[in-house]
Design goal:
By secondary structure, the chain is an alpha/beta fold. 32% of the residues lie in helices and 24% in strands. The chain contains 11 helices and 10 strands.
């Protein structure tokens, strides 16, 4: 039965030997940074030579035209790229303050077991991906896989996650109803809650609103904004207005010399007001992209 969950569960299931979910610490979430990171699929480059630091507790938006490696870059931050055949990664991704996933304060994520890493760095995808289970079981399933055996503890974590995702009041009286009966926006917030239930430190969001109508998109965006400061958040979006509203910094990707590249990085307000790169200016002003 569990085989039907394999493509999704790889993004969040952690070490089964763990006996509990740690409560969030009062310290800021860790910082993630890349050094000369490049990815290709066979002989086709996705992006090249990206060095990028992601600050603790910030919301970083990655923008740029389609096909410039934004989503591919995101998957490298928790090693989901390894699930794609013929992918080749060079360079490094470092996670600071990564205890307890490794015994060093600054480690290359390639040295960490993927399941442990993905518990610390959760991901929400473009299309809502609820399991064909009840609302409750969608969150209980990863918690049980992670070692939370006591129903009372699972209930506490599930309620907290649904509240953080802004969904609790809408589903608290029908937790045993099928998750796939929820609206698209509710399903996406359920997927966000499912990720939050494992108490990650970093959230990767790959165009989480692109498949939703404007009202549902606004609800999901509000839920994301509510998490500001609690998590380090990296969001890929084509919605420049959304990036401007919710992000602290902006990373602009572009297709250059046959591969995606980072062409500009800075405070969101500053880049929209006075970008340095002409392509950034053209893209943010709507003249390119």
């Amino acid at each position: 039965m569990l085989d039907i969950f394999k493509p999704i569960k790889n993004s969040f299931i952690a070490n089964r030997k763990a006996s509990h979910i740690e409560k969030p610490k009062n310290t800021p979430p860790p910082r993630l940074y890349t050094k000369s990171l490049s990815l290709s699929y066979g002989n086709k480059p996705a992006f090249r030579d990206i060095s990028l630091s992601i600050s603790s507790g910030e919301i970083l938006a990655i923008v740029g035209p389609s096909g410039c490696g934004k989503s591919s870059f995101l998957t490298c931050l928790n090693r989901l790229n390894e699930l794609t055949p013929n992918s080749h990664l060079s360079g490094t991704v470092h996670l600071q303050d990564c205890d307890p996933i490794c015994d060093r304060p600054d480690c290359d994520i390639q040295t960490v077991a993927p399941t442990r890493l993905r518990r610390k760095i959760g991901m929400v995808f473009q299309e809502p991906t609820p399991f064909p289970l009840s609302i409750y079981q969608n969150l209980a399933f990863p918690l049980r896989e992670h070692g939370v055996r006591h129903r009372q503890e699972r209930d506490r974590l599930i309620e907290a996650a649904l509240r953080d995702a802004g969904l609790w009041d809408e589903v608290k009286d029908r937790l045993n109803s099928p998750a796939q009966a929820l609206s698209g926006g509710q399903q996406q917030r359920l997927c966000l809650a499912r990720t939050l239930a494992l108490k990650p430190q970093i959230l990767l969001l790959d165009e989480p609103c692109s498949a939703l109508d404007p009202i549902a998109s606004e609800t999901v965006e509000t839920a994301i904004a509510r998490l500001r400061g609690q998590y380090t958040i990296v969001i890929v979006t084509h919605n420049l207005a959304q990036a401007r509203r919710i992000s602290d910094r902006l990373a602009v990707f572009w297709w250059v010399d046959g591969a995606g590249q980072l062409i500009e990085l800075g405070a969101t307000a500053n880049l929209f007001k006075q970008p340095s790169h002409p392509l950034t200016h053209a893209y943010l002003s709507g003249r390119r992209g």
